[in-house]
Write a structure and sequence with these properties.
This is Solute-binding protein. Keywords: Signal. InterPro entries: PBP_domain (IPR024370), Phosphate_ABC_transporter (IPR050811). Pfam families: PBP_like_2. It is a single chain. The protein has about 280 residues and is an alpha/beta fold. The protein is built from twelve helices and ten strands. It has helices spanning about 15-20, 45-60, 70-80, 95-100, 130-135, 155-165, 170-175, 185-195, 205-210, 230, 250-260, 265-270, and strands at about 25, 35-40, 65, 85-90, 100-115, 145-150, 200-205, 215-220, 240-245, 275.
């Protein structure tokens, strides 16, 4: 099951965790009207915070507020209800959502990764993943018990596991039957548990790991390290695509922010935080 133990380790800190969980506002020098409010999938919070900082540097008269995790569906509902101005989702719009006078466009593509508090990078065979989730006795090479962290059944990461790895439907069902297995309800809780639980293993996005400076080790799949280079070349096959969504009657300030994302500076922010720009 294990191989390539000499892969480099991504170990950083959760310095942004408290900031992200509380929401983050980028104030202008002198705001004109209310702030541009952004919400949606938790895996985008750190990235959108970085984007907002860069945007305000060029547009000091526009305030931007990045809200705590709403989830993809929650963010879209908040957008429809006028609670936020921009939603970021880890999936395309559903037909009933698209009928709500919304405008959606591809934003970025980021590698999906398996992360752990275990300090040594270990290559995981994709064919072994279902067995790892189903077997409560799985251990890391030094004997440390491997502790999986689950996501809610309705979460896009759970859907990804079911769709892309043979046997995961049954493996996830078995894992959910074990009361000691934690379920992280948000992306931020998921990364926090991954960094704190000894021997943890969970699914995440490279964008979240980098933008939140998460204190976790990224595990290669079948000996392939997830990165923008391996994703862009097609060698790393696991990724999620992010969608950015606005209302048809969006304000001029929202239009400016969307335009900034597609600019050279905005595209660089996406790359610096672990995503390939799609706009």
């Amino acid at each position: 099951m294990w191989g390539l133990p000499d892969f480099s380790i991504l170990r950083t800190s959760l310095a942004l965790a408290a900031l992200l969980s509380a929401g983050f506002a980028v104030p202008p020098a002198e705001a004109a009207g209310g702030p541009v409010r952004i919400g949606g999938t938790g895996s985008s919070i750190g990235q959108m915070t970085r984007m907002a900082e860069a945007f305000v540097e060029q547009h000091p008269d526009i305030a931007v507020e990045v809200l705590p995790s709403l989830g993809s569906s929650g963010g879209i509902r908040a957008l429809v209800d006028g609670v936020i101005d921009i939603a970021v989702a880890a999936r395309p719009l559903k037909p009933d959502e698209a009928a709500q006078r919304l405008e959606a466009a591809p934003l970025s593509r980021t590698p999906i990764v398996m992360v752990s508090s275990y300090p040594q990078s270990q290559s995981i065979a994709a064919d072994d993943l279902a067995r790892i989730y189903a077997n409560p006795g799985t251990r890391w090479p030094d004997g440390t018990p491997l502790r999986i962290i689950l996501r809610p059944k309705s979460d896009s990461d759970s859907a990804f596991l079911r769709e892309r790895f043979e046997g995961m439907e049954a493996a996830l069902k078995e894992a959910r039957s074990r009361p000691e297995v934690p379920v992280a309800t948000t992306d931020q809780e998921n990364i926090a548990l991954a960094s704190q639980v000894a021997g943890s293993l969970t699914i995440a996005s490279l964008a979240q790991v980098i933008s939140e400076q998460a204190s976790v080790t990224i595990m290669p799949f079948d000996g392939m390290t997830p990165s923008l280079e391996t994703l862009e070349s097609g060698r790393y096959p696991f990724y999620k695509e992010m969608t950015i969504i606005t209302r048809e009657d969006s304000s001029e300030a929202v239009g400016s922010f969307i335009a900034f994302i597609g600019s050279e500076r905005g595209r660089q922010v996406l790359r610096d935080t672990g995503s390939l720009p799609l706009r």
